[in-house]
């Protein structure tokens, strides 16, 4: 195991990684921007280094500053968390060149799976179903139109380098496809400096179901079951749960086995999430692999009892996983609500500010992952997610009851948050009856 690592991230995930380090006896160094000075996790880490001003480009995305901090503090490895540099293969390469272990996959697997078109091809080779669509990147509008007419509308145009729901456009006919082609290309270029796009059949009102996988350097690859992340707003997840409430044991087996096949085909190591869409007929189709730990990982931790961040450190330090698949049991139901500093009455606009009242929920089956506290300031510079509220109970209905109770206990004032909207969703008849899909919020919550 490493003796000291650096955390190239901020907020709740920085704190989450520090906690895993403490339990493993690993020293932790956090880097922070001027805007994050005074954050709780800075006090809890063993060392902390300011790496630049608030702007992410000058701090959390500033590779030279992060590498210098790693060299000065003499760490053996860097954990990138999620977001920022977590899926940047160039950063992983630089770490390796400097003799610092990147806690994540090898840069080659990150490049391969980060290109969604290349990933689709790889997955087809593993005989896992993918959404019908283009064979490679789209050359021009005419090719897109020909293909869309072959597979049938609606279709979705996506950025090969995509992420965070950006660069995606749905089209229902030739005319809208021409428009979508141009906008998706421009958006992809602006967001990812890569305008390569591809086309897929648009699955109408699917559920989003993903499988958590961890692999070691020796190729031992285990899954930690699935998470259902169908409650999304504009393709951004808001509520996640495990197990997926609408699939039976046979489909669950097939899904988890498919995810393992994908990860093995990519000769992947460390934590990954294999994402699928589930259509109304319970057919699942691969959409992408996320080559990092995800925001919603606690849901899988609660139902399996395994600490995924610790496993990331163990695998990266060269330890083989001793667990067998049959040792990983799924117990009960876990639900996570993302608490974002957003004004849901103003189209989910960011709602930064000083927190004057902060009361955490607690009690049986409740976990809160947050770096915030009374008098902390939520700045406007970064992602608006400020806390994750997770519950774990024996059944879905008990988990929903506990979550609603915990949401009502949670006080974060005076800034606006998604607490109210989460409560509304959890009280909705369709949610209670498992009749939701990825368009639920847009259609029923507004
Ligand atoms: P990103 O990497 O930007 O998050 P994904 O490929 O993971 O993009 O897709 C994010 C979400 O977009 C999915 O959870 C789903 O709601 C929607 N989506 C993506 N592809 C399709 C598709 N082919 N049909 C229907 N919905 C889709």
List the helices and strands and how they pair.
Blueprint: E1 4-7, H1 11-24, E2 27-33, H2 40-44, E3 47-52, H3 63-73, E4 77-79, H4 89-97, E5 101-102, H5 107-114, H6 116-125, H7 141-151, E6 155-159, E7 169-171, H8 174-192, E8 197-201, E9 207-215, E10 221-233, E11 236-242, H9 249-265, E12 270-278, E13 284-290, H10 297-304, H11 308-316, E14 333-340, E15 342-343, E16 349-350, E17 353-354, E18 357-359, E19 366-370, E20 377-378, E21 385-393, H12 396-409, E22 411-413, H13 419-427, H14 429-432, H15 440-445
Parallel strand pairs: 1-2, 1-4, 2-3, 4-5
Antiparallel strand pairs: 6-7, 6-8, 9-10, 9-12, 10-11, 11-14, 12-13, 14-21, 15-16, 17-20, 18-22, 19-21
The site of adenosine-5'-diphosphate (ADP) has 19 residues, from β12 and β13.
């Amino acid at each position: 195991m490493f003796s000291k690592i650096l955390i190239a991230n901020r907020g709740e995930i920085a704190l989450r990684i520090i906690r895993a380090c403490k339990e493993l006896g690993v020293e932790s160094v956090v880097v922070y921007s001027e805007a994050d000075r005074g954050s709780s996790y800075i006090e809890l880490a063993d060392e902390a280094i300011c790496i630049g001003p608030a702007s992410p480009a000058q701090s959390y995305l500033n590779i030279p500053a992060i590498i210098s901090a790693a060299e000065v503090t003499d760490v053996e490895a860097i954990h990138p968390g999620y977001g920022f540099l977590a899926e940047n293969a160039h950063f992983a390469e630089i770490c390796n060149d400097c003799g610092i272990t990147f806690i994540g996959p090898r840069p080659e697997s990150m490049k391969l799976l980060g290109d969604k078109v290349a990933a689709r091809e790889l997955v087809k080779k593993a005989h896992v179903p993918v959404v019908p669509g283009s064979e490679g990147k789209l050359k021009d509008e005419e090719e897109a139109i020909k293909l869309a007419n072959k597979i049938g509308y609606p279709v979705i145009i996506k950025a090969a380098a995509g992420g965070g729901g950006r660069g995606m456009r749905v089209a229902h006919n030739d005319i809208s496809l021409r428009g979508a082609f141009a906008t998706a290309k421009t958006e992809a270029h602006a967001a990812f400096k890569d305008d390569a796009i591809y086309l897929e059949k648009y699955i109408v009102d699917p559920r989003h179901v993903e499988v958590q996988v961890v692999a070691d350097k020796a190729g031992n690859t285990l899954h930690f079951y699935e998470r259902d992340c169908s409650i999304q707003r504009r393709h951004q997840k808001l509520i996640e749960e495990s197990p997926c409430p609408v699939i039976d044991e046979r489909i669950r087996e097939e899904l988890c086995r498919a995810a393992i096949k994908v990860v093995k085909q990519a000769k992947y190591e460390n934590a990954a999430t294999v994402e699928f869409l589930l259509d109304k007929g319970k057919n699942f189709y691969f959409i992408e692999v996320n080559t990092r730990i995800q925001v919603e990982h606690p849901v899988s931790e609660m139902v399996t009892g395994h600490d995924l961040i610790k496993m990331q450190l163990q695998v990266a330090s060269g330890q083989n996983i001793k667990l067998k698949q049959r040792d990983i049991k799924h117990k009960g139901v876990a639900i996570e609500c993302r608490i974002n500093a957003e004004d849901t009455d103003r189209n989910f606009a960011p709602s930064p500010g000083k927190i004057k009242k902060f009361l955490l929920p607690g009690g049986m089956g409740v976990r809160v992952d947050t770096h915030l506290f009374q008098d902390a300031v939520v700045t406007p510079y970064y992602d608006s997610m400020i806390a994750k509220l997770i519950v774990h109970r024996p059944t879905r209905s008990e988990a929903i009851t506990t979550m609603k109770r915990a949401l009502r206990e949670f006080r974060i004032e005076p800034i606006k948050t998604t607490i109210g909207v989460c409560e509304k969703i959890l009280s909705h008849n369709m949610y209670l009856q498992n009749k939701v899909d990825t368009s639920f919020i847009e259609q029923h919550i507004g």
